[in-house]
Amino acid sequence: MPINIPRKMPAREILEEEKIFIMDEDRAVTQDIRPLNILILNLMPEKQKTEVQLLRLLGNTPLQVNVSFLHMATHQSKTVSKTHLDEFYTTFSEVENKYFDGMIITGAPVEHLPFQEVTYWEELKEIMEWTKSRVTSTMHICWGAQAALYYHYGIDKYELKEKCSGIYEHELLYPKLKLVRGFDDVFLAPHSRNTSVSQLEIEEHPELLLVSNGEAGPFMIMSKDEKNIMLTGHLEYDATTLAEEYERDLNKGISIQPPENYFPNNDHTKKPLHAWRSHSYLLFSNWLNYYVYQETPYEWK
Questions:
Q1: In the chain, what are the domain boundaries?
Q2: Per-residue pLDDT tens for 181-235?
Q3: Catalytic site residues?
Q4: Among 62, 212, 275, 284, which residue has the least CB neighbours within 10 Å?
Q5: Which CATH architecture has domain 3-293?
């Protein structure tokens, strides 16, 4: 089944070229089924790239998925046009009385700031509190995961001596968990962050389960009530995303090492390989199936 997105959304052309099954609203209303309603709070600077990455993964299941995009009313984006946001995004005040089967909160380039100094922190706190009663399951990515761990469970982030950037190996600690059904015991995932969270604090927290761990530290964390899933890395990334970030930082004059375990033979002139694609699709498929579709009520009260 397809994902349902607006007909004029730029991501549509890219997804159609990749043969991702998408549908517009005119056709969707003729389907005699109950689609899943997914809300994406996109905090990433290059919003259109993130749209494609997430829609690609959400469109790879037998489920029909209606996707809505959310942006912060208390923050003015400098990297995407107001026209794009006005046409394809909504704000929290417009959806706060609705229910959603699933939600994704992305990463954001604000990890150098304490949470309280992020301009939209109060608005994000309101949204995360709202998810407790209005969303069946929420997936948090990178800084979004750190924000969730801090807000919901009191686990703060800490600054790394050097940026964690590259492709890292992770080991499953609970391979029978539905979230990682079909995963290899050891798998790869991209990371790109300057902060991390404490493995010890996660393991000592009674409401949390550390699902996978590895070279880059805790990666996949889940609340035991299955409401919150936190990913400290970026399984949604394209093969070239880390290379683009590396070039961006170099052009800014930032002294930074090339992403680890990423370029073939550590040669940054060679095209990186997409070594985490299958697990990306598996994760999103498992989340949609086991934690959203099979848990959400057919009719919200």
A1: 3-293
A2: 999 999 999 999 999 999 999 999 999 999 999 999 999 999 999 999 999 999 9
A3: 142, 234, 236
A4: 62
A5: 3-Layer(aba) Sandwich (3.40)
